[in-house]
Amino acid sequence: MKGLFEMDKIKKVKVAVVGCGVISEIYLTNMTGKFEILEVVGCCDIIKERMEKRANQFNIKQMNIEEILNDKDIELVLNITDPKNHHLVSTQVLNAGKNLYSEKPIDLSIESARELVQLADKKGLLYGNAPDTFMGQAIQDARFYLDSGLIGDVTSVTATLNRDSGLLAERYPFTALPGGGIGLDVGVYYVTAMLSLLGPVQDVSGFVTTIRPERTHYFPNKEDFGQKFRLEAENLVVGSFRFASGVFGNLHFNSSSIGNEKPQITIFGTDGILYLPDPNQFGGDVKVILKGTTEPVTLPHTHAFTTNSRGIGPAELAWSLRHGRKPRTSKEMAFHGLELLLGLYKSSETRQFYKMTSSFERPTPIPRGYLDESYGGSPAEAGLAI
Predict the structure, then answer these.
(1) For range 286-294, the mean pLDDT
(2) pLDDT given for residue 252 in this prediction
(3) Which residues pair with 267 in a beta bridge?
(4) Which pLDDT tens digit goes with each residue over 87-118?
(5) Which helix or strand (DSSP H or E) is residue 14 part of?
(6) CA dihedral angle for residue 143, residue 146, residue 150, residue 151, rounded to 10 degrees
């Protein structure tokens, strides 16, 4: 790989991770083993045992937040704390003059998220935001086929997701809290995929609610068995929106359903219909029904990153930093996605359309042909460097 990337000439980007919870393991696995542009130097967490575990597991330094912010060699900080802490940590990182990549959502309100975007602009820093799954093989394949005109002019798009919020609250308690609901925690993958493919949205309307908010813990092997608790996060989001291009969209996110997920994004065009796999994953088959046919066919894969590649966002941001360009996981697209979702909530409250205040530039597609190890092809990271 050194010959391909000339990493002896390109200075690696030193990274520190803030937040050592469950999702940190796959991030650190990929950031230390898959993306050569990154050099992970340390990690931090308010729970000492979690920090020690990750530091030992990946042979990196245990650090407190002050050490990270004051280390002049650290150029990029990955913020994967709980959603309620995103604003505080992201503000500290940006004020320290460091580039930032944050887990989703960017923040829990439109106003506070706008403050972060403006702060990054004021400081002249790169600020990327999850999800980065849209840079995986499936959505990039779909982008290639859409841009090639395979299904003609796109006229509408629909996204559907089902989950069981009660079961999730037992396994992952944060999903019952603000920021952990079906919209901000999971629906954001669908929204980001649609935005990356079709561009910004102008108007939004919708209904948002929490069905059966009062619950009882029912796992008999847990200490809280039989105790009452409350779902503070939404578990049903239904909405419609209009893209600036004139395309119409709708979504149906329901976690007051069954746990066996049946995710789907369907894009309708004048010459065909494109079916996308789960946007919460990086890979999967893209299928199409063309005019004159009745059954979908699977399209050939054209892009890399078929497996879990969390960390591709920080890696692409690091390449952007070295090449002086805007990252594909731009703060503007992340803010727009958050505004779309929270715009649905505002529409539900007011029973009126919500007019979007933000916009963004559709991210540049990742070049074709850089297939990953599952194909025995060239190292996939080469595509991120372009």
Answers:
(1) 96
(2) 98
(3) 157, 274
(4) 999 999 999 999 999 999 999 999 999 999 99
(5) strand 13-18
(6) 130
Cα separation, 191 vs 338, whole angstroms = 9
Strand 127-129 and strand 99-102: pairing?
A: parallel
Beta strands in 185-329 (DSSP E): 201-209, 214-216, 228-230, 236-243, 248-254, 264-269, 272-276, 287-290, 297-298
What gap in Å lies between CA 251 and CA 160, rounded to an integer?
6
As beta bridge partners, residue 15 has: 40, 76
Cα gap 192→182, rounded to integer Å: 14
Single-letter amino acid code for the residue at 130 = A
CA distance 82 to 68: 18
3-state secondary structure of 94: helix
Return d(Cα 201, Cα 48) in angstroms, integer. Answer: 43
CA–CA separation, 62 vs 53, rounded Å? 10
Cα Rg of the chain, angstroms: 21
CA distance 296 to 210: 36
Residue 386 — pLDDT band, cuts 50, 70, 90? confident
How do strand 264-269 and strand 154-162 relate by DSSP bridges?
Answer: antiparallel
CB–CB of 307/154 below 8 Å?
Answer: no
Longest dimension (CA), the chain: 63
Q: What angle do CA 204, 207, 209 make, to 5 degrees?
A: 140
Instruction: Name the residue type at position 304.
Output: A
Question: For the chain, where are the alpha helices, taking DSSP H only?
Answer: 2-5, 24-33, 48-58, 65-70, 86-95, 110-123, 137-147, 165-171, 188-198, 312-323, 331-350, 381-384
Quick one: which H or E segment has residue 158? strand 154-162
Confidence of residue 7 (pLDDT cuts 50, 70, 90): low
Tokens 């360009």 -> residue: 325
In this structure, the chain runs to a length of: 386
By C-alpha distance, which of 364, 177, 157 is closest to 269?
157
Compute the distance between CA of residue 265 and CA of residue 278 in angstroms, rounded to an integer: 8
- The tally of CA atoms less than 13 A away on the side-chain side of residue 303 is 26
